[in-house]
Amino acid sequence: MPAEWEKHAGTLISWPANAETWPGERLYRVEKVYRQLIKHITTTEHLHIIASDESAFERCSRALNETGCKPGQFTIHRISGNDVWARDYGPIFVKSKTENDWAITDWDYNAWGGKYPPFDSDDAIPQFFADKLKLPAFKPGMILEGGSIDVNGNGVLLTTESVLLNPNRNPDLTKSDIEVRLKQFLGVEKIIWLKDGLAGDDTDGHIDDLSRFVNEKTIITMVAEDKESVNYDVLQENLEILKSSVDQFGKPFNIIPIPLPETRIEGTTVDGSEHVPASYANFYFINKAVLLPVYDPRYDEKTIQVFKELLPDRKIIPVPCADLVWGQGSIHCITQQLYGF
Question: How far apart are alpha carbons 248 and 7 in whole angstroms?
């Protein structure tokens, strides 16, 4: 599995349409965030958009037109879909080590332990792209969401026990069984297990809200500055694990702590949570740039500067994401990089 910073052939998103995720005027507020993402992504790579019904197709088409996108910059796929979280159900590409041959890994998907049925249409998306691109599709026979893993493209994978070892995913698989599948189907040699995730993260603790590779040797990781924060202890434990971790060659990583923005919201989300998984770790590499979610004036500018220093060859593009993360996911959660064409 290549690192996310390797050149993409395109990016996959799904146009928001699920009224349970985005009730009432929330849908229109989140579409404003999507318009910003459309504008930035189409300047560097092709954008593939799933429109799950006629209304989504019309709203998506209008947004593309109003943002000035030209037909050659995007493709709309008018196929069934259940929700927007393309990171978790989208195709995960792998490539040959010796040749530039691509394949798709088609992991099973059950909407984070069966929390949000139906999810059958989303589960079918990887096979749709395998058929469309005429690529082989390998089926590991295991539930895995793309947001639950992060790789450095050189043999190391980050994940969390709270997700991959959760009985609502693969109750019949041991930790050893899961490691074997990850190594076999994603071509990794070393797996680093963090513990738990953020409060308000209905995925049970995806790694893409906690800790991410920015290059082969550097990991940014979220920390809570306030010791009274509901997330403080969890993030400190994850930080200590990373500090003591090494790659498959026994070499330590460069660990960069990033302050966690405010996660408590006014009122509650649709599932009753008073917190959302607002995190700077939910950034997304596009060709030549990074889309960085921002939420909190106390930390936004400082975090932007850290990313500029870590990635001097890329443009750092801050995108306000308070309305997006209200649905309990952010930029990385709604995108999936595509290769092989």
Answer: 25
Cα 210 to Cα 158: distance, rounded to the nearest angstrom = 10
User: How far, in Å, CA of 219 to CA of 291, rounded?
Assistant: 17
Q: Is 333 a catalytic residue?
A: yes
What is the tens place of the pLDDT at every residue in 79-119? 999 999 999 999 999 999 877 899 999 999 999 999 999 99
Set 60, 69, 321, 333: catalytic member? 333
Fold category of 10-338 in CATH: L-arginine/glycine Amidinotransferase; Chain A (3.75.10)
- pTM of the shown model: 0.97
Output the pLDDT for position 269.
Answer: 87
In the chain, DSSP assigns E strands to 10-14, 46-50, 74-77, 92-95, 102-105, 137-138, 150-151, 156-160, 190-194, 211-215, 218-223, 254-259, 284-286, 289-294, 315-320, 336-338
Distance from chain centroid for Cα 283: 8
Instruction: Express each pLDDT in 197-212 by its tens digit.
Output: 999 999 999 999 999 9
